[in-house]
Design a protein that fits this description.
The complex is a heterodimer of chains A (81) and B (348). Chain A contains 3 helices and 5 strands, in the order ββββαααβ. Chain A is of the alpha+beta class. Chain A has one domain. A 3-stranded antiparallel β-sheet of chain A has the order 2-3-4, with no helix packed on it. Chain A has a two-stranded antiparallel sheet with strand order 1-5. The termini of chain A are close together. In chain B, 32% of the residues lie in helices and 25% in strands. Chain B contains 12 helices and 14 strands. Chain B starts with a strand and ends with a helix. Chain B has 3 domains: 5-115 and 331-345, Rossmann fold (3-Layer(aba) Sandwich); 143-201, 2-Layer Sandwich (Dna Ligase, domain 1), CATH 3.30.1490.20; 204-326, D-amino Acid Aminotransferase, Chain A, domain 1 (2-Layer Sandwich). The chains are: A alpha+beta (81), B alpha+beta (348). Chains A and B meet through loops of A and β10 and β11 of B.
Chain lengths: 81, 348
């Protein structure tokens, strides 16, 4: 799973897909997770970093993480390798 | 080297909520790097905003509707030419194109250049002929039929599932969800634009468009894909953004190559969720959103005029993606004397 090529991710959290013209806004945590995905980090690595840094339990994070991934897929921002 | 100065007549000054391409074409021409221009506006209605907009036309003449007959139309063009010494005309309405194409030679003899599709190109891409066009040029198109009689609609269920699109031969399109709505909009469209009315399979997806220019030899001089971001209740783009879409460009280049398209065109397509492209319409002229292409780095009106003048034009190879346009409405203040001049003299 990786971020589709050409997707523009701004440090402000603004995402632009030039193939569809769609744009999105991410909150800081969404942006942080997307930047991990962009760097090809695995779920375990991402989870460890987030669980260490923020006040969240692993079950809540896992649920929210996969919801977020699904949302990215639905919006054609991710591709499966 | 000094730039040539061309006097160019442009129609489609109706910069309304159903905008004609005249004003954006003029903006492109005024930004041309290869020539200077004097712009002569040709207006059908006396309240077309382009007549009154600053830095738009240098002079505007009223012209009769094509429905008044080709003779009256050409007589008026001859008169305007005698006053203005036109180098080129860019017609921007579907409904007037036929008259211009029919009189292309006559205009050329007068010294007025045009750069239009041939009558065959114009006819075969008609909405009513879309299925055979798709077959001939190997393009995926939605199923559609041309209906001339309202009684033919009663059997429509055999051929289509609702919702269905119902379209006028030149303009207007509505989505209908049952037979009653279909009959209502058939009558509405037929009374405005005549028959046939096109009944078309509704393809679910995102509408995407391309503005393009063909040189008549099979080469694409420019092409910019766009997605409408904001659509008026008339289905017109009020905002849009340029896309990076290789497939749309490939379809465009291929179509222009196969048809040897001459002139401006707009391709309207539906992109489905599984990345299929259905051609829903081919407009045989520059669309009203052409200035977006200027913003993205392709001045297609300038290229069209150079082609019309017989000058070799290098194809544009790139454009910027993520370039947006947003239309706006603006109240121009004028004086009744302007309106009077146009009404009494037919020119302003």
């Amino acid at each position: 799973m990786r971020v589709k090529k050409n997707i523009a991710i701004s440090e402000t959290g603004f995402i632009f897909n030039p193939a569809t013209g769609d744009s999105f806004t991410l909150n800081p945590i969404g942006l942080e997770i997307l930047s991990f995905i962009e760097k090809n980090k695995k779920y375990e690595e991402i989870a460890n970093t987030i669980l260490e840094k923020y006040d969240v339990d692993s079950i809540t994070f896992e649920k929210n993480y996969y919801d977020f991934i699904q949302m990215l897929k639905n919006n054609h921002l991710l591709e499966i390798e | 080297m000094a730039k040539p100065k061309y006097t160019i007549a442009v129609t489609g000054l109706n910069n309304t909520d159903n905008p004609g391409p005249g004003v954006p074409v003029i903006r492109g021409l005024r930004e041309a790097e290869t020539f200077d221009v004097r712009i002569v506006g040709l207006a059908y209605e006396n309240l077309e905003p382009g007549i009154y907009m600053p830095n738009t036309t240098d002079k505007t003449y009223q012209i009769p509707y094509p429905s008044a007959g080709a003779e009256a139309f050409m007589k008026r063009i001859e008169y305007i030419h005698s006053r203005e010494k036109l180098n080129c005309i860019i017609p921007n309405f579907d409904a007037e194109l036929f008259t211009f194409m029919k009189n292309e030679k006559k205009l050329a003899q007068m010294g007025i250049k045009t750069f239009l599709p041939s009558i065959q190109q114009f006819e075969e891409r008609h909405k009513a002929n879309l299925p055979s066009f798709g077959e001939k040029y190997n393009i995926q198109v939605p199923k559609s039929i041309a209906v001339t009689n309202i009684s033919d609609l009663s059997k429509i269920n055999d051929k289509f599932d609702f919702p269905i699109l119902v379209k006028g031969k030149f303009y207007d399109a509505y989505i209908v969800y049952n037979l009653e709505q279909l009959q209502y909009y058939f009558n509405k469209i037929a009374s405005k634009w005549g028959v046939p009315v096109i009944v078309q399979q509704f393809i679910r997806g995102t509408e995407v468009n391309v503005v393009a220019l063909g040189d008549g030899k099979g080469n694409t001089i420019g092409a910019v894909p766009m997605r409408k971001q904001y659509i008026t209740d008339k289905g017109k783009a009020w905002g849009g953004i340029t896309l990076s879409d290789e497939k749309m460009l490939e379809i465009t280049h291929d179509l222009i190559k196969r048809t040897r398209w001459r002139g401006g065109m707009e391709l309207e397509m539906i992109k489905t969720d599984d990345n299929k492209y259905f051609m829903i319409e081919i407009n045989p002229r520059i669309p009203a959103w052409v200035y977006l292409a200027n913003g993205a780095g392709q001045n297609l009106p300038e290229a069209l005029v150079n082609l019309a003048m017989g000058i070799d034009v290098k194809p544009y190879k790139t454009y910027k993606t993520g370039i947006m346009f947003v239309r706006y409405s603006y109240d121009l203040i004028g004086d009744i004397s302007q309106f009077e001049k146009l009404n009494i003299n037919g020119e302003l």
